[in-house]
Write a structure and sequence with these properties.
alpha+beta; 8-stranded parallel beta sheet; globular; Beta-galactosidase, Chain A, domain 5; 12 helices; Immunoglobulin-like; 10-stranded antiparallel beta sheet
């Protein structure tokens, strides 16, 4: 094989000179470790286009001619691979790779000249296959907060095939960036070196980033979706960077954070002017579900909560016990049944009662909000006989619905067992009008915490292929613009009503591009032994300082679900919370949302105490770290014992103390620990960043502050039961 080699400051990249394929990537710090698993059948690029309503696939192997050239000096080289006559058509693709010994990463871009009139949906490059399935770890910045894939999870990835890169209902409603993928990078790492792949795009271009199985190992897949001309030429407006790194997922996240926090979306909370003080004051979030106990089950009105005024004394008991104002989050209030939208008014219990409840709450210093439905049209509710077929027809709902690539209405997949729905196009006028009217109603009741974009997870705009919705007939950058227009309209609604402290929230971690649009995200934490496998706080590490997070629907192992949930919420910088039941106690169950109220498990008093101590630290001495701070790599903490138990046939082993490290805006470093157990715990914290003397703030049954000096082994910390402790550098002069 004839090859050409490029050099960066950190890496050596080798390409097949005949075909332009990347065949080797070696880090200069580990030159004997091959980071690419190249094979002759791997393409240099792939693309998909639509023809007669079906996806078609092309790749570099179908080019009529390939020309690879390398120019430049020893210090800076540019490799160009030009593919002409792709698929036997008037179609040309040119890939360019720049490498400099003065820069860490190689930089990749792509130009497509389309003279064939193809409706190109995506172009996939670079084609990067990392070397191992059985060893190594992949970092995925998607979903609740990010996760790691290794071992069986890597082996279980889907096989790389064209259908994996097609926006179809079976792929979910928002697998893209900006959407369920909240940051534009993927990384794989082994013991000595890893591979980092990222896009440096500041304009919200749609992408698919995901790992897939590709023989002989794992492909870090990247597809650039939309905005490719059907006639003419386009050079991708941003660069893709590729290189090696050493370390674990924190090292990869450091590389991305260094870039992302310099972009237009990364305004820290200390400088944002659209986040009201009531939210910065960290009120615990308490959910009240008005109909039904489970999504997939009967949906009777909950007598204990209706009329709404009944909720006030129940919430009062919680507020007094946690010694803080609350946010009451009302859900499942829709006329047609839980999460039936847009045929949802008047609310169960009536407008008047709901308005009165909001007024009574605000008189007590509480706020009221709701998790809603996002841009969708619900057709039925299978547990209360709601049938919205006539409503859909009478209100011309079909106009609002997203179209699939074949022109059919885009039916949702995940809710078919209880509440079948269509997803709706945010750029379509009926969708926008319906959403604005809906939010106007909520603001009119007195709600101030609006999670309209519940189910548009991660602040996603749903893909749409319609030709008559006022956007290009391929998913693309128009989707980000549609979200910006929608939020601007919501803000006008609040301003017109004289409500200056209304916030917008989203289910799951808000993607980076939309950070300026949302004040808060509903980020559900998975503590050890519960929830999402492989959970790691990638999102917290990247973006915590830019937004408010709450963990009202995080999870934890029974019968200690709420103490565990809120201990981890606390140290990860999230507002704590829970779901209310009809007798005023909290739902202490292992779930990301709902469970039957009976049988009750665990201690309600312990659950409330954990919320109280987390909230007190967050509102008090921990505010600079847990509200405004930037997450750091974990400190070395020793002496933490696992708590083991068996419940409902499962064995649990959860560390007695959760912990995380932070840096305040003034530069001070701190470590936060939370003891979720009813026994006193001890730990030793060793972190050079803390310096020789620290303040130790303890939030337990009693609140105390002390100073401590470092010893050879670190700082010995005593944690009372159900308490939180902040160890922080003394104030810098």
């Amino acid at each position: 094989m004839d090859t050409v080699t490029l050099q960066t400051s950190c890496d050596q990249l080798t390409f097949d000179r005949d075909f332009g394929r990347l065949v080797s990537l070696r880090a200069k710090h580990a030159p004997d470790v091959e980071l690419i698993a190249s094979a002759p059948d791997h393409p240099v690029f792939a693309m998909q286009y639509l023809s007669d309503g079906a996806f078609q696939h092309l790749d570099s192997h179908s080019a009529g001619a390939i020309a690879v050239a390398c120019a430049g000096s020893a210090g800076e080289q540019v490799l160009t691979a030009r593919f002409t006559g792709v698929g036997g058509r008037d179609l040309e693709v040119e890939l360019t790779v720049r490498a400099s010994t003065e820069e860490r990463f190689s930089r990749w871009t792509c130009t497509v000249r389309n003279g064939a009139g193809l409706r190109i949906v995506d172009v996939q490059f670079p084609f990067v296959v990392v070397p191992s399935v059985t060893e190594g770890t992949v970092v995925v910045p998607a979903g609740h907060a990010g996760h790691l894939l290794e071992g069986e999870a890597l082996a279980g990835l889907p096989t790389d095939e064209p259908r994996q890169w097609q926006l179809l209902p079976e792929r979910g409603n928002s697998p893209h960036y900006p959407g369920r993928v909240f940051a534009q990078f993927l990384a794989w790492y082994g013991e000595r070196a890893g591979v980092y792949l990222a896009c440096e795009d500041t304009e919200g271009n749609v992408k698919l980033l995901k790992p897939v199985r590709r023989e002989p190992a794992i492909r870090l897949g990247l597809a650039h979706v939309g905005d490719w001309p059907s006639e003419g030429e386009r050079t991708l407006e941003y660069e893709v960077v590729l290189g090696s790194f050493a370390g674990n997922w924190y090292a990869a996240a450091d590389l991305y954070r260094e870039w992302s926090l310099q972009q237009k979306w990364a305004t820290p909370l200390t400088k944002r002017t659209d986040v009201p003080e009531w939210l910065l004051d960290s009120p615990p979030h308490i959910t009240i579900r008005l109909q039904g106990y489970l999504d997939d089950g009967p949906a009777p009105a909950i007598e204990e909560f209706l009329p709404y005024e009944k909720c006030v004394p129940l919430l009062q008991g919680v507020a007094e016990r946690v010694e803080a104002p609350l946010v009451a989050v009302l859900m499942s209030w829709e006329r047609g049944g839980p999460w039936v939208y847009p045929d949802c008014f008047p609310p169960v219990g009536g407008d008047e009662s709901l308005t009165t409840f909001c007024r009574l709450s605000r008189e007590r210093g509480w706020r009221v909000g709701s998790f809603c439905n996002g841009t969708r049209w619900v057709m039925k509710h299978l547990f209360n006989d709601y049938d919205g077929t006539d409503y859909f027809a009478e209100n011309q709902g079909e106009q609002s619905v997203c179209r699939r690539h074949d022109g059919e209405l885009w039916a949702e997949h995940w809710d078919q067992s209880w509440r079948p729905s269509y997803i709706c196009c945010m750029a379509q006028e009926l969708t926008k009008e319906t959403a604005v009217d809906f939010v106007k109603r909520l603001v009119g009741w007195g709600m101030e915490s609006i999670q309209y974009f519940d189910q548009n997870c991660n602040a996603a705009t749903f893909a749409c292929f319609a030709a008559d919705h006022g956007h290009p007939p391929i998913p693309g950058k128009w989707m980000a613009a549609a979200m910006e227009e929608m939020i601007a309209a919501f803000r006008r609604v609040a301003a017109d009503a004289g409500e200056t402290e209304v916030i917008q929230s989203t289910e799951c971690a808000c993607n980076e591009y939309c950070l300026p649009l949302f004040q808060q995200s509903d980020v559900r934490v998975s503590p050890p032994g519960s929830g999402e496998g492989g959970f790691v706080p990638v999102y917290h590490y990247l973006f915590h300082e830019c937004t408010i997070l709450h963990g009202m629907m995080s999870t934890g192992g029974e019968p200690y679900a709420l103490p565990i949930r809120n201990a981890w919420n606390g140290v990860l910088g999230e507002i704590p919370g829970a779901v209310l039941t009809g007798d005023g106690t909290l739902l202490n169950r292992e779930t990301f949302n709902w469970a039957n109220w009976e049988p009750k498990v665990g201690s309600n008093d312990d659950s409330l105490e954990m919320i109280r101590t987390v909230t007190a630290l967050r509102r008090g001495p921990g505010r600079d770290f847990l509200v405004y701070g930037r997450m750091q790599r974990p400190a070395e903490v020793t002496g933490i014992k696992p708590v083991e138990w068996d419940h409902n046939g499962r064995h649990y082993a959860v560390p007695a103390v959760a912990h995380a490290a932070w840096q305040a805006p003034d530069g001070r470093h701190g470590v936060v620990l939370a003891n979720w157990t009813t026994k006193a715990q001890a730990a030793v914290v060793c972190a050079a960043t803390l310096g020789e003397r620290v303040t130790v703030d303890t939030s337990g049954r009693e609140v105390s502050r002390a100073t401590a000096a470092s010893t050879a082994g670190g700082y010995s910390i005593a944690l009372p039961p159900l308490a939180c402790v902040l160890i922080a550098e003394e104030t810098r002069s």
